């Protein structure tokens, strides 16, 4: 399995500590276990920030970084080994494992945190934490601070500054290292196979969930623990619902099916959308819309390179789509005016993409100092224009209504432009029709 090497976690901690102010401490909790219903838990997914700095996969853990601390800068509080609990729920690293396998300088049982952590905070000027994102943890943190405050008359020195960790950490996460790109390529490769499999399996009479099952099969077979987000399999007019997740409708000849799905490998997401005909052949209207979306995506790729700003790719998609909609008679008027009045938003109501990484909608600022962010090598993003013609849009001829098309790929900015990670899924009308025809011939 391709994964982030241990040395990289250590490098990340050092890089973060190098940016922290002198005499400070950073404290991050692991994700909590989420209960699905009585006695049943959701599949555990580590908090992305915690994972980024530790690679430690367990719940009930707290990571502490104290730059310059002589007795160890990286301290992990985690669950103790427990033969009975491990028999029921699986192995735990314990404190020994935290040091041996996860590079902690020191480790303590999580049950001892109330006794130990105030002593580690005491005397530091600043506390870095993800304030506001975990109210329960924020409350604990204030309790630890209050323990120190209550001893002020004994000379204890509580910290005076509380700093949001997100700014430093999320900027680091925005720039993907070679190891991260490698993992993202693997996630993209598995997801590409899943989309190909769904196209090959598609037949009228199956259901949206039948294709979701094909996706899940390839995800799991490739070693992914889970999809990076709820898979969208949307046939017919459902393709006009942007975050459709019901996935239970019948697949009918004549309809398109839009699949937006990607797996997660070692906590790195992929995010692919393809839109193809249930019958294996696009109708004239479907093809016209599809090729317009594809042309807008190509125009966007050309705007992704160092020194171009975040918004340029989006602007390129807006221009191509607006001009194309005018040509097809779906919008009337002057292209520049239609762009200025945002008339295209009746058909294209989302942006051309988002940062991609450990979170599918990844962290990182889109604007800096009020200006769109300038792209740099290692930034990863999606490129996902779409056109959705509402089934009840009375302003367009009936033949267009209910067509929804999105095409989405994942890219990483390189020195000269961008690398498309998700090129393994066919994308032109001819390629998709050929793939689907070949699958049907083989099956016949
Ligand atoms: N799958 C969510 C998105 O494309 O942004
Ligand atoms: Mn996306
Ligand atoms: Mn998507």
Overview of the structural elements:
With 444 residues, the protein is α+β, with helices and mostly antiparallel strands. It folds into two domains: 6-173, Creatinase/prolidase N-terminal domain (Creatine Amidinohydrolase, Chain A, domain 1); 175-443, Alpha-Beta Complex (Creatine Amidinohydrolase). 37% of the residues lie in helices and 17% in strands. The protein is built from 13 helices and 21 strands. It has a six-stranded mixed sheet, sandwiched between helices. The protein has a three-stranded antiparallel sheet with strand order 9-12-13. Strand 15 and strand 16 (371-372) form a beta hairpin. The longest helix has 24 residues, at 178-201. The radius of gyration is 25 Å and the shape is elongated. The two termini are 36 Å apart. The mean pLDDT is 97. Keywords: Aminopeptidase, Hydrolase, Protease.
């Amino acid at each position: 399995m391709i994964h982030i090497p241990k040395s990289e976690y250590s490098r990340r901690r050092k890089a973060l500590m190098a940016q922290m102010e002198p005499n400070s401490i950073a404290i991050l909790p692991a994700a909590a276990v989420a209960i699905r219903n009585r006695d049943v838990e959701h599949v555990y997914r580590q908090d992305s920030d915690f994972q980024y700095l530790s690679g430690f996969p367990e719940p009930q853990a707290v990571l502490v970084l104290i730059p310059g601390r002589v007795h160890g800068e990286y301290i992990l509080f985690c669950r103790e080994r427990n033969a009975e609990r491990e028999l029921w729920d699986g192995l735990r690293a314990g404190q020994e494992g935290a040091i041996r396998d996860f590079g902690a300088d020191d480790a303590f049982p999580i049950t001892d945190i109330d006794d130990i952590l105030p002593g580690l905070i005491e005397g530091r000027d600043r506390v870095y934490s993800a304030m506001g994102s975990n109210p329960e943890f924020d409350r604990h943190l204030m309790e630890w601070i209050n323990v120190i405050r209550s001893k002020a008359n004994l000379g204890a020195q509580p910290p005076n500054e509380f700093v949001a960790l997100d700014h430093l950490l999320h900027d680091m996460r925005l720039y993907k290292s070679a190891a991260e790109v490698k993992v993202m390529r693997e996630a993209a490769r598995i997801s590409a196979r899943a989309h190909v499999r769904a196209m090959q399996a598609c037949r009228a009479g199956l259901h949206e969930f039948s294709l979701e099952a094909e996706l899940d099969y390839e995800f799991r077979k490739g070693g992914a623990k889970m999809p990076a987000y709820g898979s969208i399999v949307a046939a017919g007019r459902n393709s006009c619902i942007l975050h459709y997740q019901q996935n239970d409708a019948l697949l009918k000849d004549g309809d398109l099916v839009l699949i937006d799905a990607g797996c997660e490998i070692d906590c790195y997401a992929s995010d692919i959308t393809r839109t193809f005909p249930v019958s294996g052949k696009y109708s004239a209207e479907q093809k016209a819309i599809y090729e317009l979306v594809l042309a807008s995506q190509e125009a966007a790729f050309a705007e992704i390179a160092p020194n171009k700003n975040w918004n340029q790719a989006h602007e390129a998609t807006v221009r191509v789509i607006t001009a194309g909609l005018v040509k097809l008679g779906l919008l009337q008027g002057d292209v520049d005016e239609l762009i200025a009045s945002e008339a295209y938003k009746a058909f294209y109501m989302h942006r051309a993409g988002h940062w991609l990484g450990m979170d599918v909608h990844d962290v990182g600022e889109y604007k800096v100092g009020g200006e769109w962010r300038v792209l740099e090598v290692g930034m990863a993003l999606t490129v996902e224009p779409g056109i959705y013609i509402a089934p009840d849009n009375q302003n367009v001829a009936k033949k267009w209504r209910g067509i929804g098309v999105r095409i989405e790929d994942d890219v990483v900015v390189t020195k000269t432009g961008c690398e498309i990670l998700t090129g393994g899924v066919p994308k032109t009308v001819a390629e998709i029709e050929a793939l689907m025809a070949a699958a049907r011939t083989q099956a016949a």
